[in-house]
Amino acid sequence: MNYDPRAPRVPEQPDGAPTTTWDSLAAADSRPLPQFLLDHAQEDMGNAPLDVARYTDEAFFRAECEKMWPNVWQFVARQEEMPEPGDYVLYENAGRSFLVTRQADGSVRAFHNVCLHRGRKLRTSSGYADDFQCPYHGFTWKTDGTLKQIPCRWDFPHLDNVDLSLPEAQAGEWAGYIFIKESEGGPTLAEYLAPLPEQFDRWSHDRAYTTAWVAKVIPANWKACAEAFMEAFHVSTTHPQIMGFTGDVNSKYNLYGDHVNIAITPFGVLSPTLGVSDNEQEIINNFLKYNGRVVTPGTTIDVPEGRTARATMGEFNRRRFADLFGQDLDHASDAEVQDAFTYNIFPNFSPWGGFQPTVVYRWRPWPDVRHTLMEVRLLGRLKPGETAPVPTMKLIEPHESFADHLGQLGVVLEQDMDNLPHVQTGMEASKTKALHLAHYQESRIRHFHRTLDKYLAG
């Protein structure tokens, strides 16, 4: 299956594939969809198996830390975490520690969080600072990274001609998201993210703010965690409760360049694995029971005679999200107010698109090859005149559930989390050492590993 932007809107399907595709649903939408969602960006990623050593081998993990992580743009914070000059965010990943700071002119800069005297971390949490003074001996840096003070200056004459500014990483901002890149050179942030900024401009992420932020340490490799959110193939066995309104194997997958891909999973339709149903009311009832993230509990929606659950939910969501966001959404398609537009930006950042409360995932090794800090944010939209509160991450214990903090979304997440420890131990026990992926439905995973290999070869 080799798609390109010139492909027909509803491409011919391989033998045995569902005859209903996301494109055919888009063709029946009550509003026009943007062309970038209708285009096809696929390529043949081959069928070679993956070696489980990618997830279990310490040497492979060290190679990622040395060759990949320093050379990629990493999402580190949202603008509402550091709104004022002097605010800073502590960002740590893969053995590195950074202070990402708001400057007096409103720009953002990032510095290595290490005292140049005896190596102590300057800060161990996010916050506000007039300067960065080391708690060990008092060496002090301004928030622009330049040296401010050396205690007992007379005893360091050998440093008179040494530049003692804090080493700096590249920093960039897009739509309220803040990124850093440790190494110099390489693609600009805009080049790295393309075509994401152009596509997301439609969905007003510049007005977004964090409404919830929950994290949990998962006993599995960071890539295994991320890949659980790159395909909808697992829905029928991992999330059976959502099959009544989720077109799991109707999903569409697009690949853009090296760093960006997307899965589009339709809601408001029955999973093809359940067969065919003409009970549209039952579909929307299931949607409200098991999804409807911001629907008031107990809400009911009646499907009018002759209409589909998908169109009915689209009309309902246009009204509720317009009220929630303070924005006219009459132009928004049914797809954009209910489907899962799950983007992935290599290596570990996954923001959802669409005109609905946004889900954002981030995965970081925490701290080794077998553990991951899984973070989930929900983003709302500011109405005119509103100011975003400063959010904090809630780190929950391993025995706690995302469901206790994120409702029905958390229930689905916990089902994924239940798989992952056994994925990790299963790969470590594997006799064949090979993972055999689907050609199309798991093409984003192949795309991810091809990009990873490019960095490891550099």
Automatic annotation (TrEMBL):
InterPro entries for this protein: Rieske_2Fe-2S, Rieske_2Fe-2S_sf, Ring_hydroxy_dOase_asu_C_dom, Rng_hydr_dOase-A
Keyword field contains ATP-binding: no
Domain Rieske: residue ranges: 73-180
Mitochondrion among keywords: no
GO molecular function terms attached to this record: 2 iron, 2 sulfur cluster binding; iron ion binding; oxidoreductase activity
Region annotation Disordered: where it falls in the sequence: 1-23
UniProt superkingdom: Bacteria
Cofactor: Fe cation
Keywords assigned by UniProt, alphabetized: 2Fe-2S, Iron, Iron-sulfur, Metal-binding, Oxidoreductase
Protein name: Rieske [2Fe-2S] domain-containing protein
Organism: Sphingomonas jatrophae
Gene3D superfamilies: Naphthalene 1,2-dioxygenase Alpha Subunit, Chain A, domain 1 (3.90.380.10), Rieske [2Fe-2S] iron-sulphur domain (2.102.10.10)
Entry's transmembrane regions: none
PANTHER family according to UniProt: CHOLINE MONOOXYGENASE, CHLOROPLASTIC
